[in-house]
Amino acid sequence: MRKVTVTIALLIAVLTTLATPLAAQTAGLTLTTPYPGLTVEPGDTAEFDLLLSAPSTATVSLAVEGVPEGWTASFRGGGFVVNQVTAGTAEAPELTLNVIVPTGTADGSFPLTIVAKVRPAQPPSRSR
To answer: What is the domain range of residue 111?
Structure first.
């Protein structure tokens, strides 16, 4: 029986703008998982529960880097596939990374990287 090990690394990137000192506002953004390395069989899905928090409310864009050709990686939250979440002191979104390992994948270790980028706050829109 073949086994495939999928390991994730967590990377937090802070986008900055000239108008807003966003780096100062987002110090303390954290992204963690209790099980950063899983071993699954080809044809199975590796599911990583993720915990994302921020010291103040922020919109966070999510991406996965290093996904091998033929594999599928997607974030799920609230029953949907998502690519952005809102996180803050009172908002800790339920978030899962699902990685589908196709049948026929050779034995090995496959590291993936999750990138979380804080999006600049948008000024409130004005209704007329």
So the answer is: 4-118
